[in-house]
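Bench notes, bay 3.
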Amino acid sequence: MRKSTAILSAAVMALATAVSMSPAQAASYDVSASISTSSAQSGDGPYIKGSISPARSKAIKVQRYIGGNWQNIKSATTNGDGKYGTRLSPEYLDGALGSLKFRVVLDSPNTGKSGTVTKTIYGWRHLSDMTASSGDSFRFYDDGVHLTVDGHDADDGWISAIDGVAYTKWNLQEKCIKLTGFAGLDDYTSDTASLAKLYIGLDGTSHDYDRTFSQYETATLDKSLYKTHYLTFKAKRIEIDENAPLGVGYPRVLCSKDLTD
């Protein structure tokens, strides 16, 4: 009798285990993950894709390594072929910049996780928000200065004094890869015959960008900053008796570190 009872108990336990861990409820999967190779920018974010095996339609979680722990940041679902793809827009990254780590795991009760994938995330930063060293004549628009170049208005940026003189240097720590903005003489405070030159220097070289502007002339800036430590803006008027305030509207740099105050 005791033997029969023991056999029955073992059978019940085995059945209970089989029910609680049935393939439909809790299965182990192989998970792959890869991340887009281009440098992700704020506004588009990295794209993570991969698959699970065996191929099924299953719920997954994208996780990011934060403060020593893996934390869920987004949910997705594989298709019937076991494949998935999802973009991590800025709201999923919480404004984080730099080298970030991600992985993909199967949603509970299933098990399985991918290897770690790493991505450098860049974000735009306004130069007017960043610490700089400069000459006495340098000004930012938060001091009430406004720039209009060939009808294009900017209420954020950099501008020289009315005599066209300015010099400003920012320490980018080799963390930024691009500079954008537009440049030219101010429509309203420059004289008709005025001329001024804008220099943009990378690591002390004053001729990485060297252009002379006349009134109502504008240029778009889209410049690579790869491994630049110091970025310098310098303005100089050509005609000594002419007012020539020269500015750069909305100068922004794309960086992997928050260099603002």
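Next record in the batch:
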Amino acid sequence: MAAEREKIYECEVKRRRVKTGGGYEPFWKVKTVAVALADSDTEFRCKDCFGEVKLLGRNNKPGNPPYVEHKSAADSEFCANGILFRKATDGREPKLSEHPVL
């Protein structure tokens, strides 16, 4: 029997925008993983805990959209989107990652 995988279909991607005084500044934008890949985005993080995620399912098989999952089990345990958080029965509260992607 295969282990259940964490599949998150929305994440934040790092973008740039023009600053009022000139130049560019980075900011994070929520996108679906499929749209982020179509836009050629390269930097991803969890939209809920800001933790590191890894990109999976890029092979574009029909019916299998691309997704991300937490790199750290600790992030998954305390992220509202994490599979370990959803399975927990101890009444824990969600919190931000201890090592957020900035």
